[in-house]
Write a structure and sequence with these properties.
The protein is mainly beta. It folds into two domains: about 200 residues, Porin, CATH 2.40.160; about 400 residues, Porin. It has five helices and 28 strands. It has a 16-stranded antiparallel β-barrel. A hairpin with a 2-residue loop joins β5 and β6. The protein is globular, with a radius of gyration of 31 Å.
Length: about 700
């Protein structure tokens, strides 16, 4: 997107006279202030001299030299970019051909740099960065059907290594930059005859130039905006049937956030000031947190007389997932807060996140990424209205700004978020990054909460909080089709509605909570009954996607937690839905019961360690059983046939506290009758999870 600068118009004579008068007044005010200061200083010196001996010379303390603001040092950060340009592809299969296509996507990534400030204002430095495409675009630059082959070309990442030179004006830095640029592209060729696929990687290289500005807004943080133009070419790769090359011309507008190791050097920073003083932004009005989680999970060969396209593979396999998230919070005005959570994910769930309804890795998304992909998980605004009475202290935390709020309050949250941020919470089983990994242990099996592949949607939540109870109501967009990334915006008739009262109580002097969730969905969904009723000779029988139309479904969830002692807590969930339509977002389950306990390591002098043990039993409706028995495929399961038996999963974990915010977890799960099929399994699953947050 081009940015056109307006040419300043020539000021009129009257306007110039006003400017001249204004300058005179400013000069006069400055002179008066200086004389006032001089008079006060002289009077102060006279008063002090009366207490000195006449023959003692007055001691004049030297004026310390003010150290200028210094940008020198190492910085690490992240950025979001809007990239737009042209992708050029040259193909040499049976006959040479060339094409170009518009390229437009949101990218996100990381940067690392070092700056050195010299001659007070002049800055020189270097910076390297890498950017990854938005998950929904998946970096697709070119796709075509040529002869009997389908070709797909993707950008896996964009990188630069640049020098930069700038002028520093206290906490504002203006800079120009330039250097080398390169990317990794992946070209896939698939035969329409036998389905064979070949892949070629290429690394087109080129150059980049640009410029921007950076603002230091806190002792260790800066906000950076810049424009870059990159030109890359000559990336090519061989195929059995020919070659493919790739080049691109990309305009990029970036917004970045950088953390400076050791902070900035400035005499104002070192001086004693109130929190946030001198920076214009109070420290309590913003916060920055982050997390990163790595999960390695796998199993050894298990019994499987047959399998379908959505089955868990019977062969030994191990897979891993990794995520890195930034949590940015800003207080907009009294009671209003803005939260943004950019995230980069990479990896696969077992068997491409298929084959088990109670899937064993909550970090595994339905969108699997061979290369890292970028997403904005949350982009939301929350307005809280205090209703008076007693207050409570709010600690600084992830998506939580510090301060004080009324216990009795009403809040509205709107934007992109997860339904699970507000509904179905439980103190002992809600976060797969630190607690149970199994989907239907930290979640509710038959609660088909709406989401895209990464697990988020758009909606609004209204919440009334009192000391002993709360009530929440929410409305969220549904995908246009099951397991999709685009949303149905026919509001408010289409979508998902939720209501959840919460009761907080005390049992034997120990706190507990009971939540009852009711939900209803009206969306484009297929019917199990209609799919099975299709002629058996129909291609893909029973294909539920051909029966999609506007339908409604609903469900209930009971969710209880109870503290037994300060070190031990227990929880249980029960959920149910009629099971007449296909699942839109969560997993193939129509009835579920789970229970478990969580124990801290206080008894063995490891108070920050935690042990968890839980189990879940779940089933399908009669209509869903008939559909899967006929060979139907669900959102997660489908063995081609079915010897039905309820699916059961048991999970145990030990979380070892390493240091503040860092933990290592060993996890074991045993899944019986995976995908409700007594002919397959059981499957022992082993996992290790490393989690860090700040």
């Amino acid at each position: 997107m081009a940015v056109v600068a307006r040419r300043p118009s020539k000021p009129s004579p009257a306007f110039r006279r006003q400017i001249s008068l204004g300058r005179s007044l400013v000069s006069l005010a400055a002179m008066c202030a200086f004389l006032t200061w001089e008079t006060a200083a002289s009077a102060d010196g006279f008063r002090n001299s009366r207490s000195r001996r006449r023959d003692a010379p007055a001691a004049v303390p030297p004026m310390p030299a003010r150290k200028p603001f210094d940008w020198s040092g190492l910085h690490l950060g992240g950025h979001v970019a809007l990239d737009q340009g042209v992708a050029q592809t040259s193909l040499s299969l049976r006959a040479p051909s060339a094409t170009s296509a518009p390229l437009r996507s949101v990218f996100g990534g990381f940067e690392l740099g070092y700056d050195r400030q010299i001659f007070d204002r002049l800055l020189v430095g270097v910076q390297a960065d890498i950017s990854f495409p938005y998950f929904a675009d998946d970096g697709v630059a070119f796709s075509a059907q040529i002869a009997q082959r389908s070709l797909l070309q993707k950008i896996d990442d964009l990188s630069t290594a640049r020098a930069r030179i700038g002028l520093a004006f206290n906490r504002v830095l203006l800079f120009a930059t330039g250097g080398v640029a390169w990317s990794q592209t992946r070209t896939t060729s698939t035969s329409s005859i036998d389905g064979t696929t070949t892949t070629s990687l290429a690394w087109p290289m080129g150059w980049t130039v640009g410029g921007g500005a950076e603002l230091a807004f806190a002792p260790e943080w800066s906000l950076q905006g810049e424009y870059l133009f990159a030109r890359m070419s000559d990336g090519w790769g061989p195929f059995a049937s020919g070659t493919a090359s790739f080049g691109s011309s990309i305009h990029s507008v970036r917004l970045g956030l950088n953390w400076h190791f050791g902070g900035f050097s400035d005499s104002d920073v070192a001086s004693a000031r109130p929190a946030g003083g001198g920076w214009g932004l109070q420290r309590s009005d913003w916060n920055i947190h982050w997390q990163s989680t790595f999960v390695e999970q796998g199993y050894f060969h298990f019994r499987s007389p047959y399998a379908g396209s959505n089955s868990l593979s019977a062969d030994t396999q191990f897979a891993n997932t990794v995520s890195a998230t930034a949590f940015l919070g800003l207080r907009l005005w009294d009671g209003a807060e803005l939260y943004v959570n950019p995230e980069i994910d990479q990896g696969y769930g077992l068997s491409q996140t298929l084959g088990i309804a109670a899937f064993p890795n909550g970090e595994a998304q339905k969108a699997n990424y061979a290369m890292p992909r970028f997403d904005i998980d949350r982009l939301l605004v929350r307005q809280t209205f205090g209703l008076g009475g007693s207050q409570e202290v709010v600690d600084d935390g992830i998506n939580q700004l510090p301060g004080v709020r009324d216990v009795s309050r009403f809040a509205i949250t709107a934007g992109r978020l997860s339904v699970g941020d507000a509904f179905g919470l439980n103190s002992y089983a809600f976060d797969p990054r630190t607690q149970f990994l199994n989907w239907n242990i930290y979640g509710s099996g038959s609660f088909d909460w709406t989401m895209d592949k990464p697990g988020f949607t758009w909606g609004v939540v209204a919440e009334l909080q009192q000391r002993t109870w709360a009530f929440r109501f929410g409305y969220f967009l549904e995908p246009t089709e099951s397991d999709g990334n685009s949303f149905d915006t026919n509001m408010p008739t289409h979508g998902q509605y939720l209501a959840e009262p919460e009761l907080r109580y005390s049992l034997f002097s120990q706190p507990g909570a009971l939540r009852i969730l009711a939900w209803a969905t009206h969306a484009n969904m297929g019917s199990y009954v209609d799919a099975v009723a299709m002629p058996v000779a129909t291609r893909g029988y029973p294909d539920i996607t051909t029966t999609r139309q506007l339908r409604s479904t609903y469900g209930l969830v009971a969710n209880v937690e109870q503290e037994i002692s300060p070190d031990l807590g227990m929880f249980a969930r029960a959920s149910w839905t009629p099971g007449l339509v296909e699942v839109m977002g969560w997993t193939d389950c129509d009835e579920s019961v789970s229970a478990g306990a969580s124990l801290s390591g206080f008894a063995w002098n490891r108070a920050n360690d935690r042990v968890g043990l839980a189990g879940v039993v779940e089933g399908l409706s009669a209509e869903a059983r008939a559909y899967f028995s006929a060979g139907g495929m669900g959102i997660l399961i489908g063995d081609g046939r079915l010897t039905y038996r309820p699916e059961e999963a048991l999970e145990a974990y030990y979380s070892l506290h390493i240091s503040s915010g860092v933990s290592l977890t060993l996890d074991f799960q045993l899944v019986a009758n995976p995908a409700y099929n007594a002919d397959r399994g059981p499957v022992p699953i082993y996992a290790a999870r490393l989690h860090a947050e700040r």
